[in-house]
Amino acid sequence: MVKNNISNIMIIFGGTGDLTHRKLMPALYNLKYQKILPENFAVVSVGRRDKTEEQYRKEVLESVKNYSRFDIDEKVWQDLSERIYYKRFDFVYDNGYMELSSFLKELDENYNTKGNRVYYLAVAPEYFGIIVEKLYRHGMVNNETSWQRVVIEKPFGEDLESARKLNKMITDVFTERNTYRIDHYLGKEMLQNIMVIRFANVFFEPVWNRRYIDNVQISSNEIVGIENRGGYYEKAGALRDMVQNHMMQLLTLTAMEPPVNLDTESIRDEKVKVLKSLEIFTPEAVEKNVVRGQYAGYRQEDKVSPTSNTETFVALKVHVENFRWAGVPFYIRTGKRMPEKSTQIVIQFKPLPGILYFKEYKNLLPNLLVIKIQPEEGVKLQFNAKVPGAGDITIQPVDMDFCQNCQISNNSPEAYERLLYDVMRGDSTLFTRWDEVEYSWKFVDAIAEAWKDKTPDFPNYQPGTWGPKEANELLLRDNRMWWNV
Ligand code: BG6
């Protein structure tokens, strides 16, 4: 049963944007469909485009039809759509907020939402500060008898300095506790499963360290290019768009120590320790350990400079400098226009000792544990076994494969369903705490800084390939290879 205190009105700034249509509204519909959405709930979308409420609801219905994982149930949709409102105003002017404030109070009466608010900022980052400041100025935050939370989409700043400024602006008004920094990867089922796999199975924890693990490979590959996001992507590049947030989250969950308990802050504390232990690269280390790439054709994309040096691919090798991981390389790779869409973590175990009289056992493939995040969700263990038959012993690698989303009953929730629900109930475990952001920017800034003065030889990879050849050389140099399993 839904508890009373999760009653709220969600206000989406950027209500006509892509994120709202593709992710937020379908997620709200899916929550409603599963009867998880609070009884006392309404959503107000704020946008700059002129449209009637009726028009807006129709558009939302189309998006829900296209992107929701459940089919449209007339009754469910009817109930949700009646709670969707559209307000047109420009975020930078005060009068819109005045009207919004009194409209929300009216809705509080109708829906018994008691002043609770989720302010969702699905807008370009330059508006984050302005909106927060206006909400404060118009008395829409810090009502003592209710709660107000703010949800911030990435990018959270474009480097450490800008992130700090932004953070100050937001937390001065909302406090850290009510600030929800989205990293939608944390909403993915398998990311939440990493901790369970590691800490709920006796056979993983004892070998999860430098004594048994040779290296860790974390990849997130996409087939798509930058689609229509040239304006944003030109400034971000793969380093800021993927490495600073999603890849760092995958890394921390893989490398963290067991938390003392499963409380939000205990988990976040352990994640931060991993980020603090990352080696911060010198320019020489960047040269050696980081590869950047740009796909052929990127410079011809819409809103992209014909001489752009923005990277659409990054591969890097980094060490987590603590007792558990000393000496174990973590290889990270992410890119657009790759051969497949896949996100996975491959743990490669060390070889067995070479024993002179076990000649059949020479050149065995290593044991691999693959945590498959998407599109397939599951875990695969590769180990060696005998090929059946009489004759000489031949050994081959075989797989134990658990596919979570292949099971008929499984229909994994979309990341945003989980995340929106967690904001409403005040659980920030799956959101990024400020110090996580801070340390990952420190790591990323050192790379960006080293790149600044060097002109890369772009484009350097063909769409549909695994990035520039230097990405393979990064591992070959260490007598290793990427496992594209
Ligand atoms: C977003 C990035 O955060 O994540 C996009 O801005 C990227 O560039 C996307 O395509 C990938 O998300 P997913 O869930 O498709 O792996």
Describe the structure.
The protein has 485 residues and is α/β, with parallel strands linked by helices. The protein has an eight-stranded mixed sheet, with helices on both faces. It has helices spanning 18-33, 53-67, 74-81, 94-111, 128-137, 160-174, 189-199, 230-255, 264-277, 283-289, 415-425, 434-452, 469-476, and strands at residues 8-13, 41-47, 84-88, 117-121, 148-152, 179-181, 213-221, 290-293, 313-319, 329-335, 342-349, 368-374, 378-386, 395-403. It has two domains: 4-153, NAD(P)-binding Rossmann-like Domain (Rossmann fold), CATH 3.40.50; 186-413 and 433-476, Dihydrodipicolinate Reductase, domain 2 (2-Layer Sandwich), CATH 3.30.360.10. The two termini are 42 Å apart. A hairpin with an 8-residue loop joins strand 13 (378-386) and strand 14 (395-403). The chain is built from 13 helices and 14 strands. Helices cover 37% and strands 19% of the residues. 6-O-phosphono-beta-D-glucopyranose binds next to loops. Residues 154, 222, 241, 343 line the site of 6-O-phosphono-beta-D-glucopyranose (BG6).
List the helices and strands and how they pair.
Elements lengths: L7 E6 L4 H16 L7 E7 L5 H15 L6 H8 L2 E5 L5 H18 L5 E5 L6 H10 L10 E5 L7 H15 L4 E3 L7 H11 L13 E9 L8 H26 L8 H14 L5 H7 E4 L19 E7 L9 E7 L6 E8 L18 E7 L3 E9 L8 E9 L11 H11 L8 H19 L16 H8 L9
Helix pairs in contact: 1-2, 1-11, 5-6, 6-12, 8-9, 8-12, 9-12, 10-12
6-O-phosphono-beta-D-glucopyranose binds next to loops.
